[in-house]
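re: ur question from yesterday

yeah so i grabbed the chain u mentioned. its 437 aa long if i counted rite. heres the sequnce exactly as i have it in my notes:
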Amino acid sequence: MGNYRFIHLGFQEFLAARYIRVMMGMDGLVSFFEGTLPGHVGPPLFNDSWWREVILLCMGDSFGEARNPLKTKQLLQRLAGIGPYQAARSRLPPEQRLAGLELAATSAYEWPKTGEEMRSELARQIVGFFGDAPAMLHSAPIVRARAGSTLAALGDPRFDPDMAYLPYDDTGMAGFINIPGGRYSIGTRKKDFEPLMKQLGIEKDEWEYYENEINDTLAPVAPFYLARYPVTVAQWKAYVEAQRAERGFEYDSDSLNGADNEPAHDVNWANAMGYCRWLNERLQRDDAPAALRKLLRSGRWQITLPSELEWEKAARGVDDGCHWPWGNQIDPRRANYSDTGIGGRSVVGCFPDPTVSYGCLDMIGNVWEWTRSLYKPYPYDAGDGREDVRAKGDRSLRGGAFYLIQRYARVAYRFYIIDSRNLYVGFRVSVSPAISS
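ran it thru and got these structure tokens back, copy pasting raw so excuse formatting
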């Protein structure tokens, strides 16, 4: 027999799916993709991009023929590797486990008759996997990003729709993490600057563009709280809906695009500060998380954007000399920047890391984050007007974004722009000692 080629890949995938579905049957279907079916033993296919559509077509075909809801549930559990199939699936590498779980969740989303209970369970399983930092680090970022997008489609149970989509949190702080105060050396130390430039492959005639981050002077920072995640699209939408009727309220309609659990974007500095003022009021209501409500009602604390000093302190953690939150070597498994290969914004929490001191996630890459600070030279002096939120001037952004190379996706790199909306710019909020409006 000769070889055949298909001009339309979708038709080839359809025929492959139909053949596998008929030949293997429902009972042998997942075993085939798992690589455990007798006569077809081999590596798992769950994270193979070519087989992805074939697997989803097989699942849809099987759901269509399954008259028994219990059979459908068992098939999804088998593909996801949960319930009675969890022990067997645990023998596979983490990336294969997450890929199988994501395929099951996507199948359930695309076939509504699988039921809300099953879809909710699969969403909870993805969240559970996201909480296993070592397993996530051993899973390809693109697989994590895909799982996060599926989680958004199912409804992300990490966030509370009755509390402006802030994270559920049994501490009563709605996802705000305590960052201790002290004296902190912001920026890159002078002795570290030249080795860092060489490590990053930056030519010497370009070093002057990075000298603005050199600093050896300690600056005092008071204790504060920083959000675990950047502000999400859902959180931003809650603000827009609350403010839409207000006279003079302006925002970019593009900022409402994207998955609800991705970071907000196309938000200018004035809008970000407006969100802070609104959230500050919202979280003083009687239904707000108790510990956070008590802080804000005291008048000594407020929701605001972090200063440059606060942002960098939280990102670096206890090691105030490291170049990235996890150490001194860039790692595409730990942040969404150009080498990571995602090519766009990723769902918040896709890059958990057990080595990050305070637990603030996505500090590097994904989207730039506004700070409340005016861009001014070091040494850092909070009393020189840079923290005046009424002053005019360029505001500092931190963290880099998904499209940038490693030289920009660092803890100490400083960027600033005029107050404009940008596809690559979002923000995260802090609970900081109260300052004048």
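noticed a couple things. The mean pLDDT is 91. also The radius of gyration is 24 Å.
anyway ttyl
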